[in-house]
Write a structure and sequence with these properties.
single chain, 4 helices, alpha+beta, globular
Length: 161
């Protein structure tokens, strides 16, 4: 039986940040992560920049003491509910560890954090073609966001600066 452990990342701890960056670098190279390597700027600065943000937190999932998964999150706020939200920005499970339920274990940790913080919901985005991720999120209870079925589901847009 594999030993699975999920730890909150300390952005000032060298081992935590090395593990986080290794996992993120692998994800970036995957087609679902964009397929491009992380920039040198990101590699050098991400941990210290995240450490400056009181609304950022991450969990690393270890399998037999090896980094296998990562989830990066940010606190946000719902104006309609007047309560905090947690946005899940990255969910990463290395290919060799897929099928072990690690995403469910990490999402449960985020949900526990959200309940502790008094959040009204969790949010995330997922690519249309990422069917395995969609299945994992649906299994955990996520669904497409809509205020009213007559006006359709919300779309996630961006404008690069």
């Amino acid at each position: 039986m594999k030993e699975i452990k999920v730890d909150l990342v300390d952005y000032t701890c060298n081992q935590d940040t090395k593990d986080m960056m290794d996992l993120l670098a692998c994800y970036a190279l995957d087609i679902m992560g964009g397929g491009d390597p992380l920039s040198e700027y990101t590699k050098v600065n991400l941990a210290s920049e995240l450490a400056k943000l009181p609304h950022a937190f991450s969990f690393i999932c270890y399998v037999d003491k090896k980094p296998a998964g990562l989830i990066n999150c940010f606190d946000a706020f719902s104006t309609f509910k007047c309560k905090p939200i947690i946005n899940i920005h990255d969910v990463i499970v290395l290919p060799e560890y897929r099928g072990l339920g690690l995403s469910q274990i990490m999402l449960k940790k985020v949900e526990e954090m959200a309940k502790y913080k008094g959040c009204c919901k969790l949010t995330l985005e997922v690519l249309e073609a990422n069917q395995p991720a969609q299945a994992a999120y649906t299994k955990f209870g996520f669904s497409g966001y809509e205020l009213n079925p007559k006006i359709g589901k919300a779309l996630f847009w961006e404008k690069t600066l």
